[in-house]
Design a protein that fits this description.
Structural class: alpha+beta
Number of helices: 13
Shape: globular
Number of strands: 21
Largest sheet: 12 strands, mixed
Distance between the termini: 30 Å
Radius of gyration: 24 Å
Low-confidence stretches: 1-29, 223-231, 369-422
Length: 453
């Protein structure tokens, strides 16, 4: 984000709003895009004459929910960025809602697509689909999109890597590891959270990428419940990293990187409906707890009056922190059931989706010099403005567009990726004040040099 630092109060405001430690992020005009998809009635629902209570107008992007249990109650009406009824095709949903997110990743921006909804609402069909061309979901369709685009961009050299993992019973498990039960440790560094020793595989085409998806799906935790014969018992994330070289107009080489996280959240469950017991019941409790934490985070992000965002309340929200409040284009797909039996769960999903639509997010291109690690992005101070990177208030990285003593003003962003700095509030404030003073001195030098030219 770019802001001109004119005084101490502005400097402190920029730093405090850019922190990743559970405080509110900077707001921008663009925000989370929200799509709602209503699945068709199941054979069982049609046979038991369950009434359809959801009406969707794709053109108007509206969803109307009627309560047949209370006929006199006014229908609930919602408007979203996209609304897909029972007749919507997989291709239509990808083209209209998801393709822009994927295209942004190819241009060096981060993207997150996540599916939310009660169990048996169609989340897995939306994200993964079936192994038939017309029934492919968002994840496999993105493979073709990515490599088709790479094929026509002969001016760039691309490297594509994939990872696939799940959060099962509050433990991250690597689905592409040779050790099928390999548990991953969620570690923290100043720029956010990451999974230590996560398998990352380089792929050369869409077929290889799809092979990794199928391999991971075979390793996933699924089980039978009364509402879904193949109920996912975990939250699954398929991650694609796209890196490429690009030559600037001045002949300099730069590297850009975009990360696409496609998240198939497990469905919220009512034990009275799923008839889960024993291990299935314990799984449901774990899933519902993490979903509750995510709902709390989404609600807090959407409310400008709330200053603290509880990202640290669960492993799921820790991992999704950067996706929801950082440098990422985000699409939420809320999947709902069309029938009266699920009215309460559908209303809850629609209300959360409506609140999520209010979240604003900051997006920028991830760019770094070719000779540095691709994952590092340098921010700069120019004669007329300063740019402060989104990092901890006491770990600000600076670069100057002049031959100035950079080492004298650079604060080390990461002394150890695995052991973030633990400093007191007083030390943080002292470092901020020291850095602010140094910035003023540098700006004065630049102004003097410009005056002498």
């Amino acid at each position: 984000s770019e802001m001109c630092i004119r005084d101490r109060s502005t400097w402190e405001a920029v730093v405090s709003t850019q922190s990743t430690w559970g405080v509110r992020m900077n707001r921008r005009e663009e925000g989370v895009k929200v799509a709602v998809r209503c699945r068709p009635r199941s054979t069982y629902e049609a046979g038991s004459e369950r009434q359809v209570v959801v009406d969707i107008d794709n053109a108007a992007r509206t969803v109307v929910l009627r309560n047949t249990w209370k006929p006199t109650e006014e229908p609930k009406r919602f408007t979203f960025d996209y609304a897909f009824g029972m007749e919507a095709t997989q291709e239509q949903i990808y083209r209209e809602s998801a393709s822009d997110i994927v295209q942004g990743v190819l241009d060096g921006r981060n993207g997150t697509i996540f599916a939310y909804g009660q169990t048996a609402s169609g989340r897995s069909f939306t994200m993964e689909g079936r192994n038939e061309p017309e029934l492919r979901g968002i994840i496999p369709r993105s493979f073709e999109h990515i490599f088709t685009e790479i094929g026509v961009r002969t001016d760039r050299q691309y490297v594509v890597r994939v990872s696939y993992f799940e959060l099962y019973n509050d433990e991250f498990i690597d689905l592409l590891s040779k050790n099928k039960r390999q548990k991953l440790e969620l570690r923290e560094k100043p720029t956010g959270f990451f999974l230590k020793d996560l398998t990352s595989i380089v792929v050369r085409d869409a077929r290889e990428m799809n092979d990794q998806l199928l391999l991971g799906m075979r390793n996933r935790n699924v089980a039978y419940t009364a509402m879904n014969a193949n109920s996912g018992r975990s939250h699954c994330i398929f991650s694609i990293v796209v890196e490429y070289n690009e030559q600037g107009t001045d002949g300099s080489q730069s590297v850009r990187k975009g990360t696409l996280n496609m998240v198939n959240l497990a469905g919220g469950e009512r034990l009275s409906k799923t008839a889960a017991a024993g291990e299935r019941a314990r799984e449901a409790v774990s899933l519902n707890q993490s979903l509750k934490a995510l709902v709390d985070v989404l609600s807090a992000l959407a409310d400008p009056k709330i200053k603290h965002i509880p990202f640290r309340s669960s492993k799921l929200t820790k991992f999704m922190q950067e996706s929801l409040a950082g440098n990422t284009n985000v699409l939420m797909i809320a999947n709902v059931s069309p029938v009266d039996w699920n009215h309460e769960e559908t209303l809850s999903t629609l209300r959360l989706a409506s609140r999520t639509k209010e979240i604003k997010a900051l997006k920028r291109v991830n760019e770094a010099p070719a000779q540095t690690k691709v994952r590092q992005t340098e921010t700069r101070i120019r004669p007329s403005s300063a740019i402060v990177s989104r990092t901890e208030p006491w770990q600000v990285r600076i670069n100057i567009e002049r031959e100035l003593p950079i080492g004298e003003i650079m604060m080390k962003q990461e002394e150890d990726d695995d052991a973030p700095s633990r400093t007191s509030e007083e030390e943080k404030r002292s470092r901020l004040n020291e850095l602010y003073t140094q910035m003023q001195s540098i700006q004065a030098q630049i102004a003097q040099e410009l005056g002498n030219q």
